């Protein structure tokens, strides 16, 4: 990381083509009609990790205890992270309605985001700092 | 088992490359909570009998990394680093921000205890209950940023290989040392994240002496179970609300002080404290904000204040320098104290100090000391290996800082810290240079002078503190009053941010928080008369035992640096100075209130009342000595 401790958000961006859903061999993943979030069926999920490899941002995550995939499901339209952010007074997160937008652009790996920031800061010399 | 604790501590013996889990009984945890207080107790229990012989930089010292029961719950993650200090030869509870404490508790440990000394450089990787001592040959001698980069790379690839289906690993939390720590420089820090450091105490040197380059920890478990989760959630919101509402703090962090502590309160070190007032508007925090800050909001785990910023020099001689705020202490000690009044140059110095693994306060203090000796002609250009150490010459100070970190030439002498360097230089030059050393019992004074009387620092604050020159642990009369050190001891033991009291929070909130976490009732009064006071007594006893290289005589050393008795030469408080009689009186009244005898040694009845019989026994020889004297 360029600046350790300076966090990069690394969450599901709900790509238009949902490569993770297509990659699941046991059809454990589906798309919520209400929120467009990816839903995981814990009964079917085997924790094989194929969705992680399929995701352009390597965002899905295996829960350390039950070994099932975790993907942000937007809390069924009422995201608790947004709620706590507003309550706590950070006021950084907010909910937006889904619109025509290339959501895939947000599905990035933290390394790539780091590289972008380094380029912004250091220009040509960025590679030396990564 | 008390709620709010994971129930076990990790003890590592580096001499034999072994580790084991250790536990402490409920009574001990109840009394000493965690962090600084627990560190003092552990060190006392294990080492007090041979304290005077123990070399802080030898294999017998114990290095502790202790979070507390509030770590992870109270907004803002911190961990306390402690051991026998190579600066004061006592115990300093030095806390550092970052996620280390939180990750450690999520990994299932209440703390790490490091003993012994490794043969060759190692680092430790803790992933939940998997603990590993790994070779650090590749990262040894690397600077702060490079150490971070290599460690992140290695740890993340190791974890990805071991847990292929986990997904992406967030960087592990780390504490580590730079070259200064490796070279056992007494002003070296234990760093965390990138720009964070546990500075006071010099524990970077202890870590270096143990050849422990870093500890990286990744915990995937939950935080320990607590007594009243609902109440905790409510209190987190209260703290966050107060923290967020502190608008200036959120906007500027402590950086606002670089101008205001000088212009308004006349308490900032300028040219080694020869002055404490300036009115340089070009050194105002708005200049840092507009010219340098590339990230405005940055905070440790769960804190809504965001007092950290990222400052980056985009052009000019010091292009590429990057650090946080810098916060007030760095602004002062690596700025005006060296005669530097340009924000870019201050950011460069701060960034360099981070990279070298030095303490900005202690190193700024010793460099200012050296520069004053140069100004007075006591140290010549030849003595300083050809460096013309003029006030405000950033390049000169940068090359001196590098010499200190690598112990080259004059740097080897200054690497001993201000007090020890002053003794040595005094001997070589045949002059009393101790009068220019602005320190108390081996620890350089924090950047809050006492002469104007307008800052929060008090006239006996540094003289009576068991952490000496530490501005985050200042004390005042009465001993259970608002300004007393016992509250700082609680902050460092719980472990929460020192500024958590500054947001206008109800004073007993932290204690209610503790009760909600542990289910044990603890009031302010209980702490001030119990755990807090016990901690001060133990720290005081170990400080007085001292050794092996220097020892403190309370009659001489429980005092301010002599500079504070010289009148302020400029500013609205021109002519003001500390008063020797008033300080002496204050010190003696403090002795009485703390239950210490006229020589500053804790009395037997005080210690017995607090169930500290072993401390009493160890102090017997000290009492005898002061009687003979």
Describe this structure in words.
The complex is a heterodimer of chains A (130) and B (629). Chain A has one domain (19-129): Alpha-Beta Plaits. Chain A is 28% helix and 8% strand. Chain A has helices at 19-23, 50-54, 80-88, 110-122, 126-129; strands at residues 29-31, 38-40, 61-62, 69-70. The model of chain A has no long low-confidence stretch (mean pLDDT 84). In chain B, a hairpin with a 2-residue loop joins strand 16 and strand 17 (443-444). With 629 residues, chain B is α+β, with helices and mostly antiparallel strands. Chain B has a domain at 230-444: Orthogonal Bundle (Aldehyde Ferredoxin Oxidoreductase Protein, subunit A, domain 2). Chain B contains 25 helices and 17 strands. Helix content of chain B is 39%, strand content 12%. In chain B, strands 2-1-6-3-4-5 form a six-stranded mixed β-sheet. In chain B, strands 8-7-12-9-10-11 form a six-stranded mixed β-sheet. In chain B, strands 13-14-15 form a three-stranded antiparallel β-sheet. Classes of the chains: A alpha+beta (130), B alpha+beta (629). At the A-B interface, strand 3 and helix 4 of A face helix 4, helix 7 and strand 13 of B.
List keywords for this structure.
heterodimer, A: 130 residues, alpha+beta, Alpha-Beta Plaits, two-stranded antiparallel ribbon, 5 helices, 4 strands, 28% helix, 8% strand, B: 629 residues, Aldehyde Ferredoxin Oxidoreductase Protein, subunit A, domain 2, six-stranded mixed beta sheet, 25 helices, 17 strands, globular
In short:
Chain A has 130 residues and is α+β, with helices and mostly antiparallel strands.
């Amino acid at each position: 990381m360029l600046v350790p401790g300076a966090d990069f958000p690394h969450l599901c961006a709900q790509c238009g083509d949902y490569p993770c859903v297509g990659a699941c061999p046991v059809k454990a993943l589906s798309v919520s009609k209400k929120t467009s979030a990816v839903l995981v069926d814990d009964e079917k999920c085997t924790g094989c990790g194929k969705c992680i490899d399929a995701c352009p941002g390597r965002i899905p995550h295996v829960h350390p205890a039950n070994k099932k995939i975790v993907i942000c499901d937007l809390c069924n339209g009422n995201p608790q992270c947004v709620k706590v952010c507003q309550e706590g007074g950070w006021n950084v997160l907010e909910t937006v309605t889904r619109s025509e937008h290339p959501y895939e652009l947000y599905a990035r790996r933290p390394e790539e985001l780091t590289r972008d920031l380094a380029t912004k800061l250091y220009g040509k010399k960025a590679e030396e700092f990564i | 088992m008390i709620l709010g604790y994971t129930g076990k501590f990790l003890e590592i013996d580096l001499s034999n490359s072994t580790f084991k889990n250790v536990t402490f009984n409920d009574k001990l945890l109840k009394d000493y909570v965690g962090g600084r207080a627990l560190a003092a107790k552990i060190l006392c229990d294990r080492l007090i009998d041979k304290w005077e012989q123990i070399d802080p930089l030898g294999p017998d010292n114990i290095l502790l990394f202790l979070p507390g029961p509030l770590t992870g719950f109270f907004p803002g993650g911190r961990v306390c680093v402690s051991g026998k200090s190579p600066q004061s030869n006592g115990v300093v509870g030095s806390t550092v921000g970052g996620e280390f404490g939180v990750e450690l508790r999520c990994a299932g440990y209440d703390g790490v205890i490091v003993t012994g000394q490794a043969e060759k450089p190692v680092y430790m990787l803790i992933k939940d209950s998997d603990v590993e001592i790994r070779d650090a040959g590749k990262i040894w001698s690397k600077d702060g940023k490079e150490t971070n980069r290599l460690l992140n790379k290695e740890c993340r690839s190791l974890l990805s290989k071991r847990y292929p289906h986990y997904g992406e690993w967030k960087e592990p939390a780390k504490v580590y040392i730079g070259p200064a720590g490796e070279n056992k420089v007494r002003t070296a820090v234990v760093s965390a994240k990138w720009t964070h450091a546990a500075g006071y105490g010099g524990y970077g040197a202890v870590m270096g002496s143990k050849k422990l380059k870093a500890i990286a920890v990744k915990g995937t478990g939950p935080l320990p179970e607590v007594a009243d989760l609902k109440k905790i959630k409510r209190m987190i919101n209260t703290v966050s609300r107060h923290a967020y509402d502190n608008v200036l703090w959120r906007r500027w962090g402590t950086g606002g002080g670089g101008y205001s502590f000088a212009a308004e309160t006349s308490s900032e070190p300028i040219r080694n404290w020869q002055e404490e007032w300036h009115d340089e508007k070009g050194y105002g925090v708005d200049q840092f904000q507009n010219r340098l800050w590339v990230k405005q909001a940055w905070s440790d785990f769960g804190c809504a204040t965001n007092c950290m910023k990222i400052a980056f020099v985009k052009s000019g001689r010091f292009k590429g320098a990057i650090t946080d705020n810098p916060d007030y202490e760095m602004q002062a000690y690596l700025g005006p104290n060296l005669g530097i009044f340009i924000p870019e140059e201050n950011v460069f110095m701060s960034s360099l100090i981070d990279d070298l693994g030095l303490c900005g306060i202690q190193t700024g203090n010793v460099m200012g000391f050296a520069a004053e000796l140069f100004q007075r002609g006591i140290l010549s250009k030849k003595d300083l290996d050809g460096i013309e150490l003029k006030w405000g010459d950033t390049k000169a100070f940068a090359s001196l800082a590098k010499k200190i970190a690598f112990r080259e030439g004059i740097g080897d002498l200054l690497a001993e810290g201000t007090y020890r360097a002053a003794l040595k230089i005094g001997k070589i030059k045949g002059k009393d240079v101790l009068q220019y050393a602005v320190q108390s019992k081996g620890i350089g004074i924090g950047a809050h002078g006492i002469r104007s009387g307008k800052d929060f620092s008090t006239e006996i604050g540094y003289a009576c503190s068991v952490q000496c020159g530490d501005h985050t642990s200042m004390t005042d009369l009465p001993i259970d009053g608002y300004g007393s050190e016992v509250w700082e001891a609680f902050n460092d033991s719980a472990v929460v941010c020192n500024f958590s009291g500054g947001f206008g929070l109800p004073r007993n909130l932290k204690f209610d928080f503790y009760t909600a976490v542990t289910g044990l009732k603890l009031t302010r009064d209980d702490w001030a008369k119990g755990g807090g006071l016990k901690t001060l007594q133990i720290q005081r006893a170990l400080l007085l035992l001292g050794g092996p290289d220097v020892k403190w005589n309370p009659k001489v050393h429980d005092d301010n640096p002599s500079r504070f008795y010289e009148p302020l030469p400029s500013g609205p408080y021109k002519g003001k100075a500390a008063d020797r009689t008033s300080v002496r009186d204050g010190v003696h009244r403090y002795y009485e209130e703390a239950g210490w005898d006229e020589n500053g040694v804790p009395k037997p009845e005080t210690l017995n009342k607090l169930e500290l019989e072993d401390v009493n026994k160890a102090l017997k020889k000290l009492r005898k000595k002061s009687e003979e004297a």
